[in-house]
What does this fold into?
Amino acid sequence: MPEEGYYSNDFDEILNITKEDDSTYRIEYSVTHLLYVENAIGTYDSETGILSFSGKDDRRNDIKAEIENKGDHLEVTVTQSNYEDIIGTKQEFFQADE
It folds into this structure.
């Protein structure tokens, strides 16, 4: 299961995961120089081990992605976006200090 917290990578992209009281997750996420997502809503599937989230990017376009715990890092895979060239993109994020 992806742990709550702040994650980043060498491209200054961010992933911030916060668990809400209703067992959903609030996600903050960015792809450098392309899009920023704030307050996306995620749900965790314990059978697949994937935290899926959806929301609107900073241009109000829909985006969906999946977060998977890979042990020493989290991997985000974009599954839907108006930016078709990033669909299927995989990014690695490592725990960071806020």
Notes: Residues 19 and 25 are 4 Å apart (CA to CA). The two ends are 21 Å apart (CA to CA). The chain has no helices and eight strands. The chain has one domain: 5-95.
